[in-house]
Structures are given as C-alpha cells and as structure tokens.
Amino acid sequence: MTSPQGRMRPTHPTAHGIADLIRTFGLRTAGPDASRADQEVAAPRTPAPSGTAVTGVTVASSAVEPGDLFVALHGLTAHGARFARDAVAAGAVAVLTDDDGARLCADVTPPLGVPVLVADDPRALVGDVAAWVYDHPTRELLTVGITGTNGKTTTTYLVDAALAAAHPVRAVLGTVELRIGDDAIESPRTTVEAPALHALLALARERGATAATMEASSHALALGRLHGLTFDVVGFTNLQRDHLDFHGDMDGYFADKARLFAPAQAKRGVVVVDDAWGRRLVAEAPIPVESVSTHLDGPAAGTADWAVVEADVGLDGVGSTFTLRGPDGAHHRAVSPLPGLVNVSNAALAIVLAHRAGIAMGAAIERIGAAPAIPGRMERVIERGGGRPLALVDYAHTPDALVLALESVRPITPGRLILVFGSDGDRDQGKRPIMGEIAAHLADVVVVTDENPRSEVPEQIRAAILAGVRSVRPDGGDVHEATSRAAAIRTALTLADPEDTIIITGKGHEPTQEIAGVFHRYNDRDVLRAAVAEATLAGPGSAE
Ligand SMILES: CC(=O)N[C@H]1[C@@H](OP(=O)(O)OP(=O)(O)OC[C@H]2O[C@@H](n3ccc(=O)[nH]c3=O)[C@H](O)[C@@H]2O)O[C@H](CO)[C@@H](O)[C@@H]1O[C@H](C)C(=O)N[C@@H](C)C(=O)N[C@H](CCC(=O)O)C(=O)O
Ligand SMILES: Nc1ncnc2c1ncn2[C@@H]1O[C@H](COP(=O)(O)OP(=O)(O)OP(=O)(O)O)[C@@H](O)[C@H]1O
C-alpha cells in the first residue's frame, strides 16, 4: 500500500463551468467576485474561460488541487471559510459556503479573487455537487453499502469476494484500505468525505470497475458523506453501544444508522434482525427491506425472510458450515471462511446482499466460502503445523469484541489459548481493567503490552489492564508484561506449543503505532511473520 495523496482522483476530469454549477444547484453568489460568476450565469452556453472551470471538489484546504471547488463547511471546531485563503493559494477556483462563511470570505484582505458561492446548507449539498462534478460515477457502478456497529469491514470483504463472480474489477472502500482492482491505498477513515468518495468512484470507473462495496459509518451518515449516491443494496449488521459522545444516545445512534435506508440513499436493504435495533429498522425503513436471522434461537428465527437454521462452528478447524433458509423455504448449505458465530452472521448477510446485487445464490455461497483473508480480521497469519502454533491477528479492541474473538478461536485450539493485547491511550480508560478481566477468564496465557499509547504513559495503561487481570488471577499465573509489542509477540511464540493458538488483538490491519505523537510504521502481521522467520532460522525453542 502506498500514500493516499494525489492518487484518489480521476486522471481525466471533466471541466464544469462555474455558471453551470450555480444554476444546477440554485446557489447564490457573494462578495466582490459575484459579478463575474453572475455574468457566467447570464451566458451559460459560453464555455467557461480558462481558470474558471471546476474540475474537482474538496472540503479540506490541505487537499486542494488546481481547479477545485473548495467547500468551506461550518465544522465542529472551526469554519472552513477561515482556510479559504489557503485553498485559493493552492489553486481553488471558487468557494462554496454558507452565509457565515461568505462573511468570513468577504473580510479577507487582499480579496480572495475567486467567486464565493452561497447555499443555506452546503454540508447537505457537497455530496451531490461532488457527484455532479465527477459525472455521477455511481450511475455506471453497482454499489453495495454496509453499516452497523460491528462486522462492517468483514461483511464488506465477503460481499466483494462474491461480486467477483460477475465483476472482474471492483472497488472496496472502508476502514482498512481504499482499493480499486489490485491497487490499494491506506484509508484515512471508515467512510471518506463525500468529495473524496466520488473522486475515488470516478477513478474506479475510469479503471474499468463495475462494482463498489463500501462501509458506511454512523459519522458519515450523520455528516452527509454519502450524499450524491443511491446504493443498489445496503446492509445492516447490528447496533451496540458506541460513539454516544457523537450521537447523544442509542436512539440518536440508531437514527443516524437508519439514514442509509432512506430512498435517496438506497434502493433496497438487507437487515440482520438478531437484535431489537435491526427489527426496528425493518419495521420503520421506507425502502423495501429483507430480514436475516442468524442466531439459531434468535427471536426472529421463525419469521425472518432468511434464517440460519443450523450451524457447525469451527468443526473443521477453520471456519464454520451453516444452513441458510431462503424466503422460498429452500435450504442452502454455506461456509463462513472465518471462525466464530459472528462470522456465520457476517457470511449470511453477505450472501443475501450479494444475491440481491445480482449474483446467483450458488456463486455467492461458493465465493464467500472461499473468500481470501481479510486484513487484520481473524486473519490466520501462521498456520498450525511443522511444530508451529496457529497464530491470528484480529482487530477486537472493545470488551465485547474481545469476548467474541476469544470464544471464536477456542473451538479451533486443541492446546492453550495465548492472548497478546493492550489498550489504546487517550481513549476510553474504563475498558482497560474490564478487558484485563476478560483476558484472564477466557485466555490461558496472557501477554499484556502496548497498543497505541498516544500521549499517555504506556506503563500506566498496562498497569490498569493488569489490575483487571490480577483481580481474576491474584497469583499472576501465566500472566506476562512486555514493554514493546514486538517483544510481546516474541514472548508468545516462545511460550507456545504446537497445539496452542496465539491471538494478537487490538490493532488488526493498522500500519502504524502511535507513541507520544509520533506514528511509527508497525504492523502485527509483519512482526509476527518476522519473529517466526527468526525463530525458524535460530532453530527449535529459540524464538526469544
Ligand atoms: C466528528 C467528525 O466526524 N468530525 C469531522 C468534521 O470535523 P469538524 O466539523 O470538527 O471540522 P473542523 O475541524 O471544525 O473544520 C471545519 C472544516 O474546515 C476544514 N479545514 C480545517 C482545517 C484546515 O486547516 N483546513 C480546512 O479546510 C475541514 O476540512 C472542515 O471541513 O468534519 C471534518 C471534515 O469536514 C472531518 O474530517 C472530521 O472527521 C474527523 C477527522 C474524525 O476523526 N472523524 C471520525 C470520528 C469519523 O468520522 N469516524 C468514522 C468511523 C467511526 C467508527 O465507526 O469507528 C469514520 O467514518 O471514519
Ligand atoms: N457481526 C458481528 N457482531 C459482533 N461482533 C463482530 C461481528 N463481526 C465482527 N465482529 C467483531 O468486531 C470486530 C471488528 O470487526 P469488523 O472490523 O468487521 O467490524 P467493523 O464494523 O468494520 O468495525 P470497525 O469500524 O471498528 O473496523 C472484530 O474484532 C470481530 O471480532
């Protein structure tokens, strides 16, 4: 993977006259340059003079490229109009903002020298504007969107694997990466800003992609980052307590997730109804939705359109096999390539999503059963054999996810379960002892280390986790502390017998470790592979 900068846009953008933009979106003009933009409105058929055509869009001054429309949004901490001067210096040819922003732009001396366009709510408009500027890429792409608290990334990759049956070139956009075909860049967040999203999709179209699968975060839905695109199919995994600082309460969180199931945003939906939020979504969604029950004894098992009616979790030592009943009563035998019941749920949802996106049931089931590893999601990095233990990397970084991750690997562990984990600095401190307790209850050997300490003292984070561990195991048996993550992984390898399983949780795919404000290149998988190679070279029993 390489750096995102400069690689996320179409290479042959269309030039759109500013007058056209004003007319299409009913914008007002403001400031000393209003007359120039208004003249263009009066003569809309005249090609825009050089320098006044818009070829791109951005909401961040640092990302402006020559020819961009800079959309200056009223943010949570600042008004983007404060950065209009930087944007124009970088090549922005016009600014789109609200009335407050227009006033800020008018105060800039010397004057900005570009048209300032005004809308009542530019955040609501920016997705549609970006889609227009990039010539509506999603009109030529099949699009699948997935939301929910947990399982978005996993389900996204499983759907992508199924879409491969009919779409040789595809885009996958989410927490792990922004991928078009075989070309991937690191992702700055789960769902990128609307201008970046439409630019990426335009690039995907340019490169021959015919389908895109993406994660839809609740922040993105609340902030309109997915405006300007109507998904062919959207999916909902589950809703659990998270991000309440942003959404207020669970009802607010639900309402933001439910925005994905509005007619402007999606044509049809598939909803997992194992929790009450999913059942509420099915009852309230204004678009056609189908329900999927994935818990054998779940409250909607008998009434859902689709239901997992039987599952053998981890019996083959890898993933699970299960039977999915369809709306017509037909039973489909399927495979989850990842361990644990949660991945039966993700695989069942992915099968129905892919099927509704046009993939034949048999092909969807076959492709998902054979899906490649998902970066940092229950990823089997070292296979058991040749005297080596099985070793996996997973992104579980909350108490609930840690429980599920440990319970998922227990059935595929003939020996001891060895856990390497830590907890983030500058984030929820309350979860540290709780995760320590979970580790002590569910793992046999615990190695506590650092995750992303950020501005905190790493020893103090470890001490809080260890307090939880020792509340369950006062004698400290099989409990280890390692002052670096790499050392923790080597310790686990040294301790492991061939029938043991090592699981390293918390960082998953992450390519860096943040310590005291510095992002160091670091990845659990790479360190694990290197440690195994070292141990192999040094001979048996010498992993330390
Ligand atoms: C809470 C949240 O989502 N905040 C987003 C919001 O920030 P904000 O309103 O505070 O922006 P601001 O700092 O006040 O700045 C206002 C405007 O000025 C612009 N600006 C600002 C500074 C500058 O030098 N130049 C400039 O142009 C900004 O781009 C922004 O448009 O609008 C900004 C862009 O408009 C986003 O970058 C920012 O996301 C921040 C980076 C963020 O961390 N978001 C996270 C919480 C997020 O979105 N996470 C979800 C996943 C959550 C999960 O499921 O785990 C995600 O999709 O990744
Ligand atoms: N359907 C599910 N229900 C509950 N937990 C799940 C589910 N799927 C995965 N998990 C757990 O949640 C963690 C994150 O999984 P995944 O990355 O697929 O979800 P996500 O929604 O993309 O989360 P994030 O936004 O944090 O990346 C994993 O550690 C996994 O153990």
Automatic annotation (TrEMBL):
InterPro entries for this protein: Mur-like_cat_sf, Mur_ligase_C, Mur_ligase_C_dom_sf, Mur_ligase_cen, Mur_ligase_N, MurE/MurF_N, UDP-N-AcMur-Glu-dNH2Pim_ligase
Cofactor: Mg(2+)
GO molecular function: acid-amino acid ligase activity; ATP binding; magnesium ion binding
Keyword Transmembrane: no
GO biological process: cell division; cell wall organization; peptidoglycan biosynthetic process; regulation of cell shape
GO CC term, one of those recorded: cytoplasm
Keywords, ordered alphabetically: ATP-binding, Cell cycle, Cell division, Cell shape, Cell wall biogenesis/degradation, Cytoplasm, Ligase, Magnesium, Nucleotide-binding, Peptidoglycan synthesis
Subcellular location field: Cytoplasm
Coiled-coil intervals: none
Major localization class: cytoplasm
Residues carrying N6-carboxylysine: K257
Domain Mur ligase central: 146-354
Record PTM: Carboxylation is probably crucial for Mg(2+) binding and, consequently, for the gamma-phosphate positioning of ATP.
Residues reported in the UniProt entry to bind ATP: G148, T149, N150, G151, K152, T153, T154
Domain Mur ligase N-terminal catalytic stretches: 54-101
Annotated ranges, domain Mur ligase C-terminal: 376-508
Family, per entry: Belongs to the MurCDEF family. MurE subfamily.
NCBIfam families linked to this entry: murE, PRK00139.1-2, PRK00139.1-4
Protein's name according to its UniProt entry: UDP-N-acetylmuramyl-tripeptide synthetase
Organism, scientific name: Cellulomonas fimi
Name of the encoding gene: murE
